[in-house]
Design goal:
303 residues; alpha+beta; 32% strand; elongated; disordered N terminus
């Protein structure tokens, strides 16, 4: 009888396990629908997340040192943020939470106008040895060059202020970033900015106050539309700007030892390092923000 009883308990345990597995599978396959579908990568299961965010930069430009790179390929920033509890710059900021798939900021290459020659114009280098080395190094036919914006630190170091965004004042979005310069000749580790020395963008929908020689530029909260009875905000033609940031010199270009030659050439040809007031970021696109509770509800209703 004990044997039968033991077998019975095993069968019950297996049945419960099977049902539990079915439940987990059903939960994992739940799908967001309608206007909520775009927030699929928001970590809404985390109850500390109060809002889901999807921002797509569709155009704009970045001026890094003496070089301007237009944004021609869409860049996506996605994830969620919590309650605004962190006080700084006379405003409250919310902590950001990484996207569920780990791709908080898409690594979207932007072609540098003129390619490698557009980044490094050897004739602009005044130091004779560097100019000679530049001509010897870069006149090799490998001219295509991309600049890719990446997060320099974890997504948790991003900060968001909805009040500043809506009010078109102060910092709306603060991000630690770096630029990956991609060209076969430069190797795979040529960066401007790093985790230890990131570029800090303090993007605003208002008007900047940069040091000279830059002059103030103005962003915009965009054209606001509410969906799902106010649970989703869509800001079309959103424009975030910052032209008061500094940029370090390039590092890692060409790999070990070679970078001792290439880093100075890249820096001399592109005006790096560049002090605050000599760089600009203008990001134009569409911002989507949703109540995380509403996203969770939509998910629960669509197993």
């Amino acid at each position: 009888m004990n044997t039968h009883s033991s077998k019975g308990r095993v069968l019950v345990a297996l049945l419960i396990t099977a049902l539990g597995a079915f439940g987990l599978t059903a939960s994992a396959q739940a799908k967001l629908t309608g206007n909520y579908a775009k927030f699929a990568q928001c970590p809404y299961a985390n109850l500390e997340v109060k809002k889901c965010m999807l921002s797509v930069t569709e155009s704009g430009e970045v001026v890094l040192g003496s070089k301007k790179v237009p944004i021609v390929n869409p860049v996506t920033l996605q994830g969620g943020f919590g309650a605004a509890t962190e006080e700084k710059e006379e405003a409250l900021f919310a902590k950001f939470y990484a996207a569920s798939n780990g791709i908080t900021l898409s690594k979207t290459p932007q072609p540098v106008p003129g390619g490698l020659g557009g980044l490094v114009n050897c004739k602009e280098i005044t130091e004779p040895f560097l100019r000679f080395s530049c001509e010897l190094t870069f006149e090799n036919g490998i001219t295509g060059l991309n600049s890719t914006l990446e997060l320099a630190r974890p997504a948790s170091e991003i900060r968001v202020s909805e009040n500043n965004l809506a009010g078109e004042i102060g910092t709306a979005l603060q991000m630690p970033v770096k630029f990956h310069l991609e060209n076969p000749f430069l190797g795979s580790n040529c960066y401007v900015g790093s985790s230890s020395n990131p570029i800090i963008w303090k993007l605003t929908s208002g008007t900047t106050n940069p040091p000279a020689p830059n002059t103030p530029i103005t962003g915009s909260a965009g054209e606001i539309e509410f969906l799902e009875e106010g649970r989703i905000l869509v800001a079309k033609n959103n424009k975030l700007v910052d032209n008061a940031w500094s940029a370090p010199g390039a590092s890692g270009c060409g790999g070990f030892l070679v970078e001792l030659l290439l880093n100075p050439i890249v820096n001399a040809g592109s005006g790096l390092p560049a002090a605050a007031g000599r760089n600009t970021a203008i990001l134009k696109g569409t911002l989507n923000v949703a109540s995380a509770a509403a996203v969770r509800k939509n998910n629960a209703e669509n197993p």
